[in-house]
Design brief:
Blueprint (H helix, E strand, L loop, with lengths): L1 H24 L6 H34 L1
Amino acid sequence: MTMKILIAFVFIILIIALVGTLMVTRKTDEKYSETTKKNTTNLTFIYVAVIFLSIIALGVYISFFA
């Protein structure tokens, strides 16, 4: 009996999550392409910096511990 209640509870949560997702996706963003370009540029700079610092850290590690 409790298993049926739990399964029903999961389906209720699933339906609520689906309705919430659909409500959020109805909103449109007029400046989507502008913000996407800015975010992509920022992420690219972050990735370049992290890769560069990782290569330096790897070089330091190899020179001291290898």
